[in-house]
Design brief:
Layout (H helix, E strand, L loop, with lengths): L2 E3 L10 E8 L5 E6 L2 E6 L6 H14 L3 H4 L1 E5 L4 E5 L9 E4 L3 E9 L24 E4 L19 E4 L12 E2 L7 E2 L6 E2 L8 E6 L10 E4 L4 E6 L13 E4 L6 E4 L2 E5 L11 E4 L9 E5 L6 E6 L3 E5 L2 E6 L3 E6 L2 E13 L4 E14 L7 E8 L4 E3 L5 E3 L3 E3 L8 E3 L12
Parallel strand pairs: 1-9, 9-10, 10-14, 13-15, 14-16, 15-17, 16-18, 17-19, 18-20, 19-21, 20-22, 21-23, 22-24, 23-25, 24-26, 25-26, 26-27, 27-28, 27-29, 28-30, 28-31, 29-32
Antiparallel strand pairs: 2-6, 2-8, 3-4, 3-7, 5-6, 11-12
Length: 421
């Protein structure tokens, strides 16, 4: 299939909608809604359609609600015409009326422009990507912000290089007017991939030279993907990773070598990652930062050789040779640590913890109770639970070592009974 490269060349066109009152006017109420917020005009007895239109226009243009304030209403006698003040920015308005009155909304001109994924003029091959295409963002700084709901399109590959410095997707909070921000209601993530296609889409982010994008939001929908993150740009906003991913296929795989990544980062998001690998390129601890929200689903296989990982949720097997991981919640079935540090702050259960010579398992940061069912300690490891927050169901097993060769930080006034393993 074709290779579609993003250019962002389309001409910006403003969206225009019409609202047409009708039916039995009486003293009915006419309402327009954007993002769950309303403006309303209540007709007076004897009002005509023209008077209702005039009333709606006056109420709309007087509104200080930011979603309404960015759109100008004009009186066309029998209809109210709505035009976004910024060409290329789409909006969604619904209308209703009480009683036997009507209030009909229609879009007469759709928004489009250089920031729309679904405009053919923005792609080098002159057509919007389709199934089997390779989608490439590899140059320029034109943002891709709208027309992002493409869940029926399953590309063979998606490549976003460091040479592309534009943004993909919208921020959680719309700050176009800094004095009147609002929570974004438009599709915020580039949504691709369909479980109905057998393709396992390959995603590569951060290849090549350049500073990269400060905001990439990807939703891989129900399709299966194998993603590799070689690097990301610096995050645009404090507290929000530069790359946000989500997707619900049970076999998704992500490999993070370097970069700033969040999975199911916001509370309303869900994602499944069957296999997650966190590594490094030059700086073992500092190259990668990965934060997984509470709705990330169960990670079956988590392998970590570096980086900083923050996890909310369950993991079946976590194998670690180095790096740092903080569990804020969730159960871990098997924790295999040859090195690195795990801070366990959850109130759940680690079924089996195997601590090798350079491993440190630390429970000091959270005073709540939790359980470690089986804990196997090898020479040179460290175990920190000075406040006695952990219930070690089957005790502590010293494997081919003695207490003198393990760093213990355990509570006082406890009886530890030596038995054979």
């Amino acid at each position: 299939m074709a290779t579609a490269r993003w250019r962002g060349d389309a001409v910006a066109i403003a969206q225009v909608d019409t609202i047409t009152p009708g039916g039995t006017i009486g003293t009915e109420t006419f309402t327009c809604t954007i993002n769950g917020k309303d403006i309303t005009y209540t007709a007076e007895s004897g009002d005509t359609v023209a008077l209702v239109v005039a009333g709606l226009v006056a109420v709309w243009n007087a509104s200080t609600i930011p979603e309404f304030a960015e759109i100008t209403a004009t009186d066309s006698t029998t209809t109210m015409t709505l035009t976004h003040d910024t060409k290329g920015v789409p909006f969604t308005v619904t209308s209703s009326a009480s009683g036997s009155a009507t209030n009909v909304q229609a879009t007469s001109t759709s928004a489009t422009g250089p920031h729309h994924f679904n405009d053919a003029d923005n792609w080098t091959n002159g057509s919007v990507p389709v199934d089997g295409d390779t989608i490439v963002y590899d140059s320029g700084n034109v943002d891709c912000l709208y027309g992002l709901s493409q869940g029926g399109v399953t590309p063979a590959a998606l490549n976003i290089t460091r040479a592309y410095t534009g943004k993909i997707g919208l921020p959680e909070i719309n700050g176009a007017n800094p004095a009147a921000p609002y929570r974004e209601y438009r599709t915020d993530s580039l949504t691709l991939c369909d479980s109905g296609d057998a393709t396992n889409t390959t995603i590569t982010i951060g290849e090549g030279d350049g500073t990269g994008s400060s905001r990439i939001r990807l939703d891989t929908n129900t399709g299966q993907v194998t993603g590799t993150v070689l690097s990301t740009g610096q995050r645009e906003l404090v507290g929000v990773p530069a790359l946000l991913i989500k997707g619900t296929h049970a076999s998704n795989e992500w490999n993070i070598l370097k970069g700033d990544v969040g999975g199911a980062y916001y509370a309303s998001e869900t994602t499944n990652i069957a296999t997650l690998r966190v590594g490094w390129v030059n700086n073992q601890l500092g190259d990668a930062r990965v934060e997984l929200g509470e709705d990330h689903g169960t990670i079956t296989t988590l392998s970590q050789s570096g980086g900083v990982l923050i996890v909310d949720g369950a993991v079946t097997t976590h194998s670690m040779t180095d790096g740092e991981c903080t569990y804020r919640s969730g159960n871990v079935t098997t924790l295999n640590m040859d090195g690195g540090t795990v801070y366990y702050k959850g109130t759940g259960t680690i079924t089996t913890a195997n601590l090798g010579s350079d491993a440190s398992l630390d429970f000091r940061r959270d005073m709540r109770g939790r359980t470690v069912t089986n804990c196997n300690l090898y020479e040179g490891c460290a175990l920190h639970d000075p406040f006695g927050t952990v219930t070690f169901s089957n005790g502590l097993d010293l494997i081919r070592t003695s207490p003198n060769d393990v760093e213990f930080d355990l509570p006082q006034n406890k009886t530890w009974t030596a038995t054979a393993i």
